[in-house]
Amino acid sequence: MATFRHFRSFSKRHFYIVLTGFIILTTLLILKDWNVTKSTKPKVKTFDRYNGKATKSKLEVTSSTARKEAMRDSSEHQKHNHSTYNLVIVIKNSKANPSLHSKFETLLGSIYKMSSISLCFHVISDGDGETIAKSVIKRIAPKDTRVIIHNITVVTQKVQKEISQMQSFFTQSSKSYYGDPLFLLSIVLHRVIPIDKVIMLDVDLKFNDDIQLLFEIFNEFSEQNIIGIARENQPVYRHLFHQYRRKNPSTRVGAPPPHGLTGFNSGILLLNLHKMRQSDVYNSLIDSPKTLEGLTQKYLFKGHLGDQDFYTLISLENEKLFYVLPCSWNRQLCVWWRDHGYSEVFDQYFTCSQKINIYHGNCNSPIPVLHWEQQ
Ligand code: MN
């Protein structure tokens, strides 16, 4: 009986030991399997946790979990800074703009026809935009391409205060085409994405040269340059500053290249996010609506073209913040203003006699078939 009881208790203990061992083993196997599955997934990540308030070089985060996440994300991005080249593209409202899909295909196809570098795409998108971006990138880009999806609602919420201040100066109404916050996002991207340098591209572009050459232009920035941007190729700002120009006939404001302050087109932006974070001048312009209001009043300016209005306006008194990209890197094709009162001066703004590296089919202008597409 004693032996039997001993046997029974031994059996029970034995059973629990075996059960515990089984549970541990199963857990280990599941974890191992999970890791294997995870690492074989496509290199697509969804980032929506950045704390945008990066003051100076440190990320300002509140909870310890958030801090850990931000540090991990930041170190992830530091790696990208050194090993790959970062591109930012916004894809939103594809239902209202059915041509967005084919435009993005054209852009990507042209980039990869000539690219000699490995790229990391930061796609800022809504649900449909994410689907388009992933499918096109998967089909066209090489396997080592990285994709990071940023949810546009989450991103714009982080910089809502800054954006709504801007909206009052640089959009006609929140319901107009350029009224969407996405058209102002580039201005505060340094508070959203914790990496050092990015090139932000419109979707209506076609490359005709190696994108690495565009990244190399960052090296030509002077110490004060923080943003690289090309001139606007139409007399848009001659028009928008017409009141100021009438009162100041010898002004450079709104005058054509090469000596005028022609105004900018934001289809291609070289953003040195690190220098943008460091620049007190730049950040004070974002954070003090009074200064901006002062500029709009002084130059009698009412904008409607989003971020490029902001860059244009602040460049009038802060010319050195901008590196002016050659027209070859943003050859805009829209000619709307030629037929709307500016035919006599149009060519002074529109002419670009350099070999074209990027065509920009703005205002839905068709982009020519290039020599490499005919082969
Ligand atoms: Mn465009």
CATH topology: Spore Coat Polysaccharide Biosynthesis Protein SpsA, Chain A
- Beta strand count: 13
Q: Which ions and ligands are bound to the chains? A: manganese (II) ion
Number of domains: 1
Instruction: Name the CATH class.
Output: Alpha Beta
The rounded Rg comes to 26 Å
CATH architecture identity: Alpha-Beta Complex
> Helix count, per DSSP?
15
Low-confidence stretches: 31-42, 48-75, 77-82
Strand order of the largest sheet: 1-6-5-4-7-10-9-11
Query: What is the H-and-E element order?
Result: HEEEHEHEHEHHEEHEHHEHHHHEEHEH
- Major sheet, described briefly? 8 strands, mixed
Mean pLDDT across the residues is 84
Could you explain how this protein is built, in words?
- The protein has one domain: Spore Coat Polysaccharide Biosynthesis Protein SpsA, Chain A (Alpha-Beta Complex).
- With 375 residues, the protein is α/β, with parallel strands linked by helices.
- 45% of the residues lie in helices and 16% in strands.
- Helix 3 runs parallel beside helix 4.
- The strands form 3 sheets. Strands 1-6-5-4-7-10-9-11 form an 8-stranded mixed beta sheet, sandwiched between helices.
